[in-house]
Amino acid sequence: MEDTRWARNFAEIFPVLKQSMSKRLLYELVDRNGRSFSPFVWSARALLRYKGLPYETVPLTLTQIHKTIPIVTPTNKLVPVLVDGENTVFDSFQIALYLEKYDKSIFPDKNIEAVQSWCTVVRGIMLQFLRAVNQIHMYEKVADEDKEYFLNEKVNKQVGGLEQGRRNYEDAKRKLHANFALLEKALKENRKEGSNEFETYFFGKLSFADIAVGGLLHWCVSAVGEQEAFGDNEFLRRWFANLKSTVNLNE
Q1: Distance CA 182, CA 239 (A)
Q2: Which distant-in-sequence residues (6+ apart) come within 8 Å of 170 by Cβ?
Q3: Count of CB atoms situated within 10 Å of the CB of 122
Q4: Can you tell me whether residue 118 is helix, strand or coil?
Q5: Which residues pair with 47 in a beta bridge?
Q6: Among residues 38, 79, 56, which one has the least CA distance to residue 214?
Q7: Which residues contact residue 140 at a Cβ distance below 8 angstroms, ignoring those fewer than 6 apart?
Q8: Hey, how many other C-beta atoms are within 10 angstroms of the C-beta on 133?
Q9: Which pLDDT score is estimated for 69?
Q10: Is the pTM of this model over 0.85?
Q11: Phi, psi dihedral angles at 158 (to 5 degrees)
């Protein structure tokens, strides 16, 4: 019997591909309630909103991503993916570079390499603590169809399983908050005299570095809630609120 799975898959995806030819689409990861929680997708959304570019989202669960994204962009299996007419871009940093052709640059003084290096280091440090805090909570929030994959690939591999993750949670949260304090210190050191207390940025002006950190904070809040995420760090909570207002992404 002829294997027609490819035809069925294409029939499911074709309407989305056809639609993408005329619209700017952002493919994103959502939980069981349709809420976007990926830190990298948040950064891409923030870029589009800050630059005032209209777009539509294509919300996908993890299971749907594994079926859909390789068809949209065969060399990639992750989100965010931005489809802008005939152009397809993935990875939030690459999306940031692509969107530089529009107004409102987010690379101060065109210092792209410095911003990229900073993001690579800070994201690398923060992600290890964020995973330890977030993944056991996100397991409860992902779609039912995603739970087995999320448990095996995220919880087991990144935090050693649910039980170990729960045992280590308080210590991981303490270490995360210690790193949040370092971010607060860096932001305060870069504050310009006379500016709003919370209108301060890692490179002096709004850059992709701030948007990348905003994405990480969004992920943490999505996973554990605002109080658990920020603890007693009122400065970073209000800085994040100011950042969301600046980029027009208050949802």
Answers
A1: 14
A2: none
A3: 19
A4: helix
A5: none
A6: 38
A7: none
A8: 27
A9: 85
A10: yes
A11: -95, -30
pLDDT score at 159: 95
Query: What residues pair up with 60 in beta bridges, in sequence order?
Result: 29
Q: Domains in the chain and their CATH numbers?
A: 20-101 (3.40.30.10), 114-246 (1.20.1050)
Query: Which run of H or E residues covers position 89?
Result: strand 87-90
Tokens encoding 209: 């570095």
CA distance 143 to 153: 15
**Residue 213 Cα to chain centre, angstroms:** 9
Low-confidence ranges of the chain (pLDDT < 70): 1-22, 251
Q: Write the secondary structure of 18-45 as one string of H (helix), E (strand) and C (coil).
A: HHHCCCEEEEEEECCCCCECCHHHHHHH
Query: Would you call 189 helix, strand, or coil by DSSP?
Result: helix
pLDDT at 10: 47
Residue 92 CB burial class (10 angstroms; 0-12, 13-18, ≥19): buried
Count CB atoms within 10 A of the CB of residue 151. 16
